[in-house]
Amino acid sequence: MKQADLILQNARILDPERGLDTVGDVVIRHGILETVGSRAPSPEECPDLEVMDAGGKWVVPAWVDMHVHLREPGEEYKETIETGTAAAVAGGYGAVACMPNTRPVNDTAAVTDFIRRRARQEGYCRVYPVGAISKGLEGKELAEFGELRQAGAVAVSDDGRPVMDSLLMRRALEYAQAFDLVVISHAEDLHLAQGGLMNEGAVSTRLGLRGIPAASEAVMVARDLLLAELTGGTLHIAHVSTEASVRLIRDAKSRGVRVTCETAPHYFTLTDASLEGFDPVFKVNPPLRSQRDLEAVRQGLADGTIDVVATDHAPHSSLEKDTEFEYAANGMIGLESALPLVLQLIRDGIGGPLEILAKVTCNPARILGIPMGSLRAGTPAHLTLIDPEQEYVIDAGTFHSKARNCPFHGWPVKGRAILTIVDGVVRYPF
Amino acid sequence: MAFVRKDLLGIRDLSSEEIQTILDTAESLREINLREIKKVPTLRGKTVVHLFYEPSTRTRTSFDVAAKRLSADTYSIATSTSSMVKGETFLDTIKNLEAMGPDVFVIRHSASGTPHRIAARTSASVINAGDGMHEHPSQALLDMLTIRQKRGRLEGLNVLIVGDIAHSRVARSNIWGLTKMGAHVTLCAPPTLLPAEAASLPVRVSHQLDTVLGAADVIMVLRLQKERQGQGLLPSLREYAVFYGLDRKKLEKARDDVLIMHPGPMNRGVEISPDVADGPHSVILDQVANGVAVRMALLYLLVHREVPPVRG
């Protein structure tokens, strides 16, 4: 593939890792960032470089989504590594971390190997596999963390299912330290959630849908924080959706517990009121919560308690979604709708561009320990050119993902990725 | 007032004027059920499909009797499970049935919201005959019709709903309907059988039946499903009967002219004692009779709805 030779002139360069926010040029030669910010040599001096006038648009590190489901191997009718990563680069992402709930489960080096190989062959962006905490995601025995790590896994998680056994979670947080792996917790007490279909509250009462109390998440967040404290392990809480979770994590961080966490655009944009029409596109786990939870999540983003915005991109076909609400699968896609919703946080005053962009670039890269999320000269170019002012209506029909289960279909939004470079190669536009 | 709705999905969507129209229509159609020849040609040539994804005897029979008394052709499809088991979605089923040109689908489904999903995809009218724990609008309408017949009004009455409110679509529909018509609703149940944030509903809530019985003009007793004990919501059916079951002794605290209602089927000896169920205050069989009239009214109003003029 052709390495980019490109000058991006007059860009607003935003590199949250270094706190850099400046207007200038970016020079990429043979796919390597040559200069960032200083004035580029004139085109006459380097006729071998293509010149592009960024016109004040934003050059940022390529986004990193630390929570996606690519469905390959096993459910290729929903998504593949090829289509999922195409969706990623179209949405401004240069790297994704894919969860292990595939078929077979990514609980062995062989599956991790397979995912990495497919990603090299067919992927549009970098793919970092997340291995399972327990064999088969069954919550009984630890998976082989060491071999998973050697094969390229960057974290372990039983995402989609909680580790209900507290002792097993303790052992995971201990054992993972030998291989420098972060343990990602899907925090949900299944006894409390008990077959619930949506957030428990006034809306579930009106709709007659079994509720999942906010406490079913927070109870497990509290447990995992205590276990992280006990073991000294590195914990990351996935898809934080409740006020109590934010409060518990804020408190743990202030006491020095090694914990980070993420939320997803739907948790800071939508509430359970969206379920009034019984449309399964809004069915997700954790469920869309109350306005009060939404505001607490936004506060957590503002004060830094929440480190990361991930999409939890969860593709499903009409077989799983176009059905009775009760029987529909949980999950929403997010890779091609997240960018404008994240930029909206800046317009809403939740944080400045650097603070908000850190949550989709250097923060997830740091948590996963991957060489992404920055714009340092001398490194391979992973960058996204964003037009923050472009207004359009989200149309899931145009998505590159195989799936259409996007709750933001039809929303007027602002902000779009117009160029995504990964490993020095222009991967979007295709 | 003119009825313009295509579907009857829930009481919560209705205005008090619409409820009034349905009850008045039912009242006028009731007379047909007293004739020697109980049939009028109002829906001749119309097709009503009963689609019951959940077992039902009385509601299905009641809708069927109602449709036949109006001369509609009726077809019943009873299936205990989602069509997903057969490899097709319920929408495939609906599309197939719709191709046969029905005018009304009467749908019961154990999953809340399913009639709404179907209504959005078909040009036929949809009547919700009970969806999950969500709504059972025709039941609430027949309950309101019964109260109105016995008391002459709904406004200002105190209605006490006792029992498993959390899992009851009958309770939800009645809460919306009765409060829209100006009645005051009190819910009485142990906290484990109340829905989350019950205070968000337009009701009063009590956990002690003794303290709220006396003020009630109407007591609606809900069926207690026996599996609630196994689900850990109750220590025992026996204890439930002691504190929340309506028996003759508790009834001594009630008003002399109190009406006792039950949507059926009853668990005699659990939520209601046999002597109360069959006693002088009970209007349970009036409810059943009114069910036919209300369902006739719904079929009539939806099939003969006024189609609003197309704008533009």
From TrEMBL, chain A:
GO terms for molecular function: allantoinase activity; dihydroorotase activity; zinc ion binding. Substrate binds at residues 69-71, 101, 285, 316. Its EC number is 3.5.2.3. One of its GO terms (biological process) is 'de novo' UMP biosynthetic process. It catalyses: (S)-dihydroorotate + H2O = N-carbamoyl-L-aspartate + H(+). Coiled coil: none annotated. InterPro entries: DHOase, DHOase/Allantoinase_Hydrolase, DHOase_cat, Dihydroorotase_CS, Metal-dep_hydrolase_composite, Metal_Hydrolase. Binds 2 Zn(2+) ions per subunit. GO terms for cellular component: cytoplasm. It holds the Pfam family DHOase. Keywords: Hydrolase, Metal-binding, Pyrimidine biosynthesis, Zinc. PROSITE patterns: DIHYDROOROTASE_1 (PS00482), DIHYDROOROTASE_2 (PS00483). The keyword Ribosomal protein does not apply. The keyword Zinc applies. Its cofactor is Zn(2+). SUPFAM superfamilies: Composite domain of metallo-dependent hydrolases (SSF51338), Metallo-dependent hydrolases (SSF51556). Zn(2+) 1 binds at residues 67, 69, 159, 312. The active site is at 312. It comes from the Bacteria. Signal peptide: none annotated. Belongs to the metallo-dependent hydrolases superfamily. DHOase family. Class I DHOase subfamily. Catalyzes the reversible cyclization of carbamoyl aspartate to dihydroorotate. This is Dihydroorotase.
From TrEMBL, chain B:
L-aspartate binds at residues 86, 169, 223. It comes from Desulfacinum hydrothermale DSM 13146. The keyword Transferase applies. Residues 155-302 form the Aspartate/ornithine carbamoyltransferase Asp/Orn-binding domain. Belongs to the aspartate/ornithine carbamoyltransferase superfamily. ATCase family. Heterododecamer (2C3:3R2) of six catalytic PyrB chains organized as two trimers (C3), and six regulatory PyrI chains organized as three dimers (R2). Signal peptide: none annotated. Residues 6-149 form the Aspartate/ornithine carbamoyltransferase carbamoyl-P binding domain. Keywords: Pyrimidine biosynthesis, Transferase. Its EC number is 2.1.3.2. It catalyses: carbamoyl phosphate + L-aspartate = N-carbamoyl-L-aspartate + phosphate + H(+). GO terms for molecular function: amino acid binding; aspartate carbamoyltransferase activity. InterPro entries: Asp/Orn_carbamoyltranf_P-bd (IPR006132), Asp/Orn_carbamoylTrfase (IPR006130), Asp/Orn_carbamoylTrfase_sf (IPR036901), Asp_carbamoyltransf (IPR002082), Asp_carbamoyltransf_Asp/Orn-bd (IPR006131). PANTHER family: ASPARTATE CARBAMOYLTRANSFERASE, ORNITHINE CARBAMOYLTRANSFERASE, MITOCHONDRIAL. Catalyzes the condensation of carbamoyl phosphate and aspartate to form carbamoyl aspartate and inorganic phosphate, the committed step in the de novo pyrimidine nucleotide biosynthesis pathway. One of its GO terms (biological process) is amino acid metabolic process. It is an enzyme of class 2 (transferase). Pathway: Pyrimidine metabolism; UMP biosynthesis via de novo pathway; (S)-dihydroorotate from bicarbonate: step 2/3. One of its GO terms (cellular component) is cytosol. This is Aspartate carbamoyltransferase. The keyword Transferase applies. PROSITE patterns: CARBAMOYLTRANSFERASE.
